[in-house]
Amino acid sequence: MAREIxxxxxxxxxxxxxxxxxxxxxxxxxxxxxxxxILSFGIDRRWRRATIELMHIDEKSVVLDLACGTGxxxxxxxxxxxxxxxxxxxxxxxxLRAGTKMRYEIxxxxxxxxxxxxxxLGSDLCTHAMIAFGIRNVQERPRAFxxxxxxxxxxxIFAVLEFTPMDRKFISSxxxxxxxxxxxxxxxxxxxxxxxxxxxxxxxxxxxxxxxxSREGEGAGFETLQTKVFALGVATCILLRKPD
Length: 244
What we know:
It contains nine helices and seven strands. With about 240 residues, it is an alpha/beta fold. The N and C termini lie far apart (about 45 Å).
């Protein structure tokens, strides 16, 4: 699976890689939330809440949750009073669980199967957009940044929360030991899909830096407002803004 997704040969088109990622997340959806809590020791929830706070979501907010998965970030936005949340994800199994998670929230929520490169939303619709631990799964990031820019109102905020390479050698070594050895073993045992949890550390190891992501966003027209580092560099939130 990981080789299929990372295949750099011409025979592996972006569409084929998207299909491989979608299939992987459909398979692991039943145990996804449980493994997130176990493998991150619950820290991922704090990072998501901090991201929502940085975005200043309120009762007037219309929010896109891109690569929404099972809806953790959507639920956090709802708890901050968002008026509407659109969740977009290629995995139908993930979306089913996101809809269930949001069923008791007052916030209106709509979960739509789709990819970031071609968002099924109108232009200038949202006040906020966000993506948590999903931007590295987007096969054509420039197209996705352009699409998020399109659906945001002028002045709209886009938050990108993602695992990022670390500068601190000791912390990086300890994190890599856990991420590349223990995580696939535990994830594979519980999900019965070891290949999916081998993909996670490989995708992080091959990914760009936070500075690279900021530049990609700026290339689509955004301006970088803030970069917030979590856990000594394990994850980073980049806050982008569509100019007025």
